Structure formats: C-alpha cells, structure tokens
Amino acid sequence: MIPLNKYQKKFKREWLNPFAFSFYFFLNVPMGWLSGMKLKELSEKKCISKVPFRWYYRWQNMNPFKSMYFAVQCMAAELSVASIAALAVKGIKPSIAFIITKMRSKYLKKATGNVSFKCEDGEDIFNAVDKAISTKKGVEVEVKTIGTLEDGTVVSEFYFTWSFKQRRK
Questions:
Q1: Going by DSSP bridges, is the β-strand pair 47-51/115-119 parallel, antiparallel, or unpaired?
Q2: Mind giving me the DSSP string for 23-44?
Q3: C-beta neighbour count of 32 within 10 angstroms
Q4: Which DSSP letter does residue 63 get?
Q5: Confidence band of 125 (pLDDT split at 50, 70, 90)
Q6: Residue 81: how many CB atoms within 10 A of its CB?
Q7: Which of 14, 30, 40, 67 is the Cys-Cys partner for 48 at CB 3.0 to 4.6 Å?
Q8: What is the spatial distance between Cα 89 and Cα 60, in angstroms, rounded to a whole number?
Q9: Within a 10 A sphere around the Cβ of 16, how many other Cβ atoms?
Q10: What is the pLDDT, as a whole number, of residue 55?
Q11: Which residues pair with 98 in a beta bridge?
Q12: Residue 45 carries which DSSP code?
C-alpha cells in the first residue's frame, strides 16, 4: 500500500464527499456536473467513476441512436484516471504539473444504461510521479480505464497518457 500524506488524505476525503464533489464540478467543470458524473471509489490503486443514463433523467447524455454519447463516456473515463493523478500529486513539494498528452479509445457495445469506469493503474501513476521527482524530468505513463454497464458488459476502453513534470521553483 502506498502511504498518503495529509494533503492526499484530505483530497481523497473531499473528493469522495458527494456534496463537495458536486459543488466543485458545478463551479469548475459545469459539463461534468450537468452529466451527473459521480465518483464511487478513490484509492492509491484504483478509482471508479459513474455516469447515469436514463432518458427521463439525463437525456443530455444521449445521442440520436438511443445510447450514451461518446464524449460523455470520455468525460467520465477521464475522471476515473484524473482523480488518481490529482491524488498522486497533492501536497508534493516541489509541485508536479500533470496533463494528458494522448488519448485513445475503443467502443465495443452500445452504452444503453449507467456506465461505470474503473481504472486500476494507480500504482503506475504514483510510480510515475515518484520518478518525475527523482529524475527531475518529465515522465509519461499510459493508463487504462474500462467502461461497463451495470450487468458487467464492457462498452468501452480508454487509454490516457499522462505526463508528470516537476515544476521549477
């Protein structure tokens, strides 16, 4: 298990608080807030995000083919990996800048229900941050998140390449 510093513990606690999470997204990522994205689990090893799909509740997540719009899936998929990345850099001195440099995806089935995205590459992200600190150079890491319906059907896979770099003092 990767030990968390006090800032990371606070971030994790706040990010998993539904009210604080919703308020943050309302102010900073309004499209994420409108889509109804939620964070279900966040740890050093994995993260699970969820986006609802009900025609009467989240019709804005739907495309004309009665399935979830690909961009909504991408947004929720990014949340599942970005939350771990944000957790990994929280409270690190000197601070670490991080950004997505590449993204690719596969759509395997129509997303016709609520979709959960699970990323289990947390250790790879934390290791990349440690390497960026020790080498003082930019480090890239590719992480995967898998989107599934409530019955376990895999609907999509996303691969995000993150770059971590120590900021100059």
A1: antiparallel
A2: HHHHHH-HHHHHHT-EEEEE-S
A3: 21
A4: -
A5: very high
A6: 27
A7: 40
A8: 33
A9: 16
A10: 57
A11: 164
A12: S
User: Cα(37)–Cα(47) distance, rounded to whole angstroms?
Assistant: 13
Which tokens belong to 39?
């964070």
Identify the DSSP state of 136: -
List, for residues 126-147, the tens digit of each pLDDT value. Answer: 999 999 999 999 999 999 999 9
Strands 96-107 and 47-51, how do they pair? unpaired
**Pairing outcome for strands 115-119 and 96-107:** unpaired
Look at the alpha carbons of 30, 160, 97, 128 in this order and tell me if their dihedral is positive or negative. positive
The CA distance from 24 to 13, in Å, is: 14
Check pLDDT > 80 for residue 1.
no
pLDDT band at 3 (very low <50, low <70, confident <90, very high): confident
pTM assigned to the model:
0.92
CB crowding 39-49: b at 16 or more within 10 Å, else e: beebbbbbbbb
Amino acid residing at 23: F
